[in-house]
Amino acid sequence: MGRVIVIGSQKGGVGKTTTTFNLAYCLAKMGKTVLAIDFDSQANLTTCFGVEKPQELDYTIGHLMMAQLEDEVPKSLKSYIKSRDGVDFIPASIYLSVADAKLRTEMGVEQILASILKRVKNKYDFVLIDTCPSLGNLTINALAAADEVVITVSPQLLSMMGLQDYLRTIGKIRKRINPNLQVSGILLTMCEKRTTLCSVLTKEVTECFQGQVHVFDTKIPATVKVGESIYYNMPIEQYSKRATAAVAYRNFAKEIIGYEGK
Predict the structure, then answer these.
(1) Low-confidence residues in the chain, pLDDT < 50
(2) What's the whole-model pTM score?
(3) How many whole angstroms separate alpha carbon 46 and alpha carbon 112?
């Protein structure tokens, strides 16, 4: 059975989408079957996979969510699953916001995404879900469907402040909806090792959560190569294999493979 992993954080701009994109590609390069799901109406992950006009798509995760809400899920999901560079993905568009609004008016809808994933997750080693930077209904659906959560944290003060809130939300989901949900670990992203603030906050995260929450050994460095690769819709591994971020994401993929729910 595939491992369903949410890449999440309460804060935006902390590398969730970049991590999902690069982790998916690295896992695929290591021989794993991977499905990535863009679960954010901004469709940034969809754009990373080279879809130029997500708003024109007729088959997205938003359409699937709406179909599930209306009990009209199609027999086959092939039309919704696209592929690029050995990675399967389900795109998103602004239409996901329509599904989000619908979720607010319905009862007992926390496991809509879980119902969809039951049909596909056994076909993959990993299902990665890129989530929006909020604690609303979409995030609750993602956490209810997941086995694990990777929390991306940029070593900046505001990013750190949202970490405890996100952990509390995970705890509530585990208690009320998904008792099997666990935190794989905290991934520090955009680490500028030369700055004092980065060093201080990185040390603070490690000291505060070591023993309580796993902190991945891998730290994703801040580098212009990552931004350049995203601009060209390429994983950093393809764009610049020797870049420090490319090495880091390969190491992170190895950590994820080796974690196996420890």
Answers:
(1) 261-262
(2) 0.92
(3) 21
